Structure formats: C-alpha cells, structure tokens
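Hi R.,

As promised on Friday, here is the backbone we talked about, encoded as structure tokens. Could you run it through your design pipeline when you get a chance and send me back a sequence?
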C-alpha cells in the first residue's frame, strides 16, 4: 500500500494551448528550487514524458484509464510520486476530452477525479480579453465534482493584456496563478506525430527547458501552486501488480534517438521478471549486445533515421539472421518497422520476409482491443490484449495474427509465433505483468536450443 501525497493536474481547454510548455515549466521551476518533482502524463504518450524527465531528472509516468485500468491509476500515480515532494500530472487534449469508449472516459477530468487532485486550467489567452471569463466559467462549473482550483493564462500579449484578463476573471473568484507571455522561444519543435522527442536533441532541449523554468518562475505563483498541491488529501493507493521472477537473461533493448518510445513501467516489469536490459542504438551499434536471449524493440521515429539505419548493415543483417533463427522478439510500432524489409524503399532489417512499410498521409490513431488468433510469444490463441496505435505508416502485407477492435471498426494485423510478436500495438503492461513473465520465460526457454545450434 502506497500513499499519494501533494499533487496537482495541469489541464488545458483544448489541444495546443501549451499544456506541455506550462507543465514542464512548472516542473523545471520547482526542481530548480531544490524540490523533488514527480511527473506523470494522462494518456498513451511517450514524447511529453521525455520532456518531464528532462525537467525533473525522474522517469515520466503514464496514467491511462484504458491501457492500465481506472483502478490502477492511484497506484501508478503514487509510484510516480515515490520519493518526491509533489506530483505534477500533465493532462491530455482538452480537460473533458476522452477515449469515447463504452465504460472508459479516459479524460484528464476523470484522472483528476480519481486522484482527488486540484486541477490547474491552462488557457491560450492570445486572442481574447473579456471572453476569457465565459470560457473559464464554463470549464470550472461544467462538472461540480471536479476541483478546478486555478488558471494559468498562456501566450499573454503584455502587461496591459494581462491586466484586462485578470479583471475579467476576478468576479469568478478563481485564482489566476500566472500569466505567461507569448514568446517564440517557448514553442517546441513539432513534426508529423507531435513534438520532437527529447532523445533526438537532448542538449538543445535541456537548455530550452532551463530557460522555460526561468520564465515560469517569473510569471507563475509557485508558492500558490505548492499550497494547492499540498491541500490535496493524502490517500492510500494499492500498488500496481508486480511481475513474478522467472529467471535471469539478457534482453537487448532498442534505444537511441530512433527508438525512445517505451513505457518505464514495462521496463520495470521486465526487470522484475528477470530481464537484464541492455540498451543499444540500432543506428550505431555494430552488433547486438553480448549474450542477448531476446530483443525488445519499442516505438520511435525510424522513418526520420532510415538512412542511418540502412547504413548500419552489419547490425541489420545480424537482426535478420537472429530473429529468423528464433531470437525471442517483441517489436511494436517503430520496432515493427525496423524488422521490415524496407521503409519507403530504404532497406531495413528484413527479419519479416516480404513485409514492406511506407509512410502515408492518413493517421491511424486510437485505442485497440486485440485477440490473438494463433498461439504465440504472448500466450495461446485467444489471448486478450489492449493497446494504442499512433502512426502514419502502413505495412504490406499487414499480417493477420491479431483480431483488432477499435471505436471505428475491426480488422486483422500483426505477426506472431512462439518467438515473435510484431505489431503496431503499444501496450502498457501495468495491468498485465504476466506478459512480461511470458516474454522472459520464452527467452529462457530458447537458450538451450540456441546453444545447441551454436
């Protein structure tokens, strides 16, 4: 049993208002004062938690009601806050925007309610003055069970503009906790699937976050934020389930700028099961880590680094040979593309013979329920999985190992065998640690066969 202490949620009226800027800036400003700041993100995000980690020096966690289950959210939040003075949770999309699935809200508002956390509303005030009061009043009063405790005004035009906004909001009695000026140097770089990951430009990002922390410290009332966080009721939270120890084995972990999309909880569960995770960068490593009994290839942007990956032919050839020979492999999204023969004609590993990938203009996004159609690495036929897809690429053939169901339809995709699971499905293992155990068990079981072949 864990305790969930001081905490607050940074939410937005809609996507694009600057939630990540404000949340990361608050984290950096508090950390620069010597506070230990825990960080979490609502939803199935990988990129924003990277910014949180750069600001706090701690792993950025994910709080997703669909992937992990509503009942695990307090425990996951407590894990994110363990050893910290407070927890700052960044919301997803607009405050009340959710998954739109039966029985699963998934919105920032739901997470705030579950965590009993005060909510700070970020408003893009760049094109309004008096209308800000109507907007904020609507968000603050829409759900009486939600504690909207204050407002941060973002992209404010200057001192006069800030004063107009404060005057308009005064009758609401809701504290204005800050007014952050509009500055071009506070805008993060973006690409086709969102912000550019920290792993691609670590030094540049670290400098930007330090600058952002200084701006937030000047324009946001940090003491008021701390009072809000400390006013949240201390509550007990059940620890998320752990993985049982299966046995020791080396697992090669795709890392580096092209493969940075992995949930920290997944890595922890694999380690609990006995995996010794050895990171390697497929763009630069000459070979797989010594003694690797398995490969875990998470997501990322291999399309951005396709030429560098293609140039590392010795590593790609080893991947193709080892995976084809039965190296236990779990590949999702970007890792899935790595195993294909090519991406937009650029040759990659070719571990999935005849499977080619290409980028397109259509974004495949959403939660998925999946059922395995064949016995495989993650369990017998009929094993139920949950995950999230977020990609603009497609593969041909798509595979048919999974029966997928999302909000807008059904389909089949993915590849599976007793030693391989490859698909676009990003899975968060907090609610299913048995999958980590099965992966490690398969790696251990493969060692005698591999030794005999050697």
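Update: got your reply. Pasting your designed sequence below so it's all in one thread:
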């Amino acid at each position: 049993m864990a305790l969930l202490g001081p905490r607050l949620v940074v939410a937005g009226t809609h996507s694009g208002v600057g939630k990540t800027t404000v949340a990361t800036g608050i984290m950096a400003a508090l950390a620069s004062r010597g506070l230990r700041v825990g960080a979490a993100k609502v939803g199935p995000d990988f990129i924003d938690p990277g910014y949180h980690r750069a600001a706090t020096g701690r792993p950025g966690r994910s709080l997703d009601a669909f992937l992990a289950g509503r009942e695990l959210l307090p425990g996951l939040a407590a894990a994110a806050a363990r050893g910290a003075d407070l927890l700052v949770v960044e919301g997803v999309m607009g405050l009340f925007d959710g998954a739109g699935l039966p029985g699963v809200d998934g919105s920032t508002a739901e997470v705030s309610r579950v965590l009993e956390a005060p909510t700070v509303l970020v408003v893009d005030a760049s094109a309004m003055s008096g209308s800000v009061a109507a907007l904020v009043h609507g968000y603050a009063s829409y759900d009486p069970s939600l504690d909207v405790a204050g407002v941060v005004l973002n992209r404010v035009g200057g001192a006069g503009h800030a004063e107009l906004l404060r005057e308009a909001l005064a009758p609401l009695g809701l504290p204005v906790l800050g007014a952050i000026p509009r500055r071009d140097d506070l805008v993060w770089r973006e690409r086709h699937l969102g912000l550019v990951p920290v792993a691609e430009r670590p030094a540049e990002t670290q400098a930007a976050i330090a600058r952002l922390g200084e701006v937030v410290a000047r324009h946001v009332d940090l003491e008021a934020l701390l009072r809000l966080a400390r006013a949240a009721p201390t509550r007990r939270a059940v620890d998320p389930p752990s993985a049982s120890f299966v046995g020791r084995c080396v697992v090669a972990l795709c890392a580096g700028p092209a493969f940075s999309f992995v949930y920290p909880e997944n890595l922890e569960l694999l380690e609990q099961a006995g995996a010794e995770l050895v990171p390697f960068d497929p763009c630069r490593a000459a070979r797989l880590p010594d003694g690797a009994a398995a490969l875990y290839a998470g997501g990322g942007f291999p399309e951005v680094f396709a030429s560098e990956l293609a140039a590392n032919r010795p590593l790609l050839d080893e991947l193709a040979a080892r995976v084809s020979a039965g190296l236990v492999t779990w590949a999702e999204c970007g890792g899935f593309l790595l195993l294909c023969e090519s991406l937009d004609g650029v040759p990659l590993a070719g571990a999935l013979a005849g499977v080619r990938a290409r980028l397109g203009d259509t974004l495949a996004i959403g939660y998925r329920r999946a059922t395995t159609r064949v016995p495989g690495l993650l369990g017998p036929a009929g094993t139920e999985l949950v995950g999230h897809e977020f990609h603009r690429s497609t593969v041909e053939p798509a595979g048919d190992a999974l029966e997928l169901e999302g909000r807008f339809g059904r389909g089949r995709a993915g590849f599976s065998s007793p030693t391989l699971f490859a698909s676009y499905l990003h899975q968060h293992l907090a609610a299913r640690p048995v999958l980590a155990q099965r992966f490690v068990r398969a790696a251990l079981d493969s060692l005698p066969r591999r030794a005999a072949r050697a």
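One thing I noticed while checking it: Residues 249-453 form a domain with the Rossmann fold fold (CATH 3.40.50.880).

Thanks again,
M.
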